[in-house]
Write a structure and sequence with these properties.
13 helices; eight-stranded parallel sheet; 335 residues; 12 strands; alpha/beta; two-stranded antiparallel ribbon; globular; binds ligand FNR; TIM Barrel
Length: 335
């Protein structure tokens, strides 16, 4: 097994070991009204983003590929994406860009779901040619580029030169004929970052903030020395990032991910203005070691709970959710 394949498997193992914790979504509540005045059966969760209409406002966010074990995970994610019509983002394809024998662990997603809306995934060191190869490999409908400086810094083998990242992203965005979405990996985005991306022409952003999977913790555990434990609280939460993103929401399509633990968090992120909401660790736990019927039962339940909360809020479609019904607690109150 290559070093990279080993790292992919370790990421999965360590992400599965991370326990759900409190995060900034707990600082938000909704006003309660006792007469919702709608019927459960009238709720329609369909949502429009990336130029498409999807059945649901949530998607399977970037995770895996690049090893035998992650191929099986990708197959299961693809089965879910197909059954429910969800967008699916692949994990970083660099392993396969460097070693063709690993392509199968990504291609499986297209084989299982030929008509699905699938996003490729690369890092901003990629050249335009590599970006095009990543798209071709899986006939991607769009390409996501992950920016992860905090993770790179805590890895011994990580990048130390970020001076070309924005420029690379700009070139890839210009040269590709599919949409490009730029995402973080759990450290969030500031107004400054979003402005930089908007200025170079990026139209789709996933702020992917702090509050769920924590890659400083994961890399610390991998390196055993736990050298960077003091950085484990680094980053902006998904809630903070969405507040930062608000002034851009009429110009850029903003997606949210990072620390979405349950259907209520999905609804909170939508109420803060996200067009769609990405889940990684929740889906990882839904498919890992599960039989197909078990994972479908979990997704069915997730969707049913989303609808029940919409019912409680008296909203029939996600586009009716706004931040006016939010009650803030604690330090986010003044924002
Ligand atoms: C990730 N994530 C990720 N992101 C990315 O753009 N490329 C990648 O290759 C990976 N790899 C990866 C592996 C594993 C096992 C996990 C759990 C996550 C980051 C992911 O897309 C997301 O941004 C964060 O995980 C935060 O979301 P959750 O997990 O809190 O829902």
């Amino acid at each position: 097994m290559t070093t990279r394949s080993k790292r992919k498997d370790e990421h999965v193992k360590l992400a599965l070991a991370q326990h759900e914790k409190n995060n900034d979504f707990d600082l938000m509540r909704f006003y309660h009204h006792s007469f919702p005045e709608i019927n459960y059966r009238d709720i329609d969760l369909s949502t429009h983003y990336l130029g498409q209409t999807f059945n649901y406002p949530f998607y399977i966010n970037a995770m895996t590929g690049g090893s035998e074990k992650t191929k099986e995970l990708n197959r299961k994610f693809a089965l879910i994406a197909k059954r429910y019509g969800l967008m699916m983002v692949l994990g970083s394809q660099h392993a396969a860009l460097d070693d063709k024998t690993l392509e199968e662990s990504y291609r499986v997603v297209r084989d299982v779901n030929p008509e699905g809306f699938i996003l490729g995934n690369i890092n901003p060191n990629a050249s335009v040619t590599e970006a095009k190869r990543a798209v071709e490999m899986i006939h991607a409908n769009a390409l996501s580029i992950h920016i992860n400086p905090a993770q790179e810094l805590t890895m011994d083998e990580g990048d130390r030169d970020f001076s070309h990242w924005l420029h690379r992203i700009e070139s890839i965005n210009k040269e590709l004929d599919v949409p490009v979405i730029v995402k973080e990996v759990g450290f969030g985005m500031s107004r400054y970052t979003i402005n930089q991306l908007q200025k170079i022409g990026i139209k789709h952003i996933d702020v992917s903030g702090k509050g769920g999977t924590n890659f400083v913790t994961i890399e610390n555990t991998r390196s055993e020395g736990k050298r960077f434990s003091y950085l484990e609280n680094w980053g902006l939460s998904t809630v903070e990032s969405l507040i930062e993103a608000k002034p851009f929401m009429n110009k850029v399509e903003i997606m949210a991910s990072g620390g979405i633990r349950n259907p209520l968090d999905v609804i909170k992120a939508l109420a803060l203005g996200a067009q769609a909401v990405g889940l990684s660790s929740v889906f990882l736990k839904m498919v890992h070691d599960k039989k197909e019927e078990e994972m479908y039962a979990e997704v069915d339940q997730f969707i049913d709970e989303l609808k029940r909360i919409m019912l409680l809020l008296g909203k029939t479609n996600p586009r009716e959710l706004t931040d006016t019904d939010i009650i803030w607690e604690g330090r986010l109150k003044e924002r």
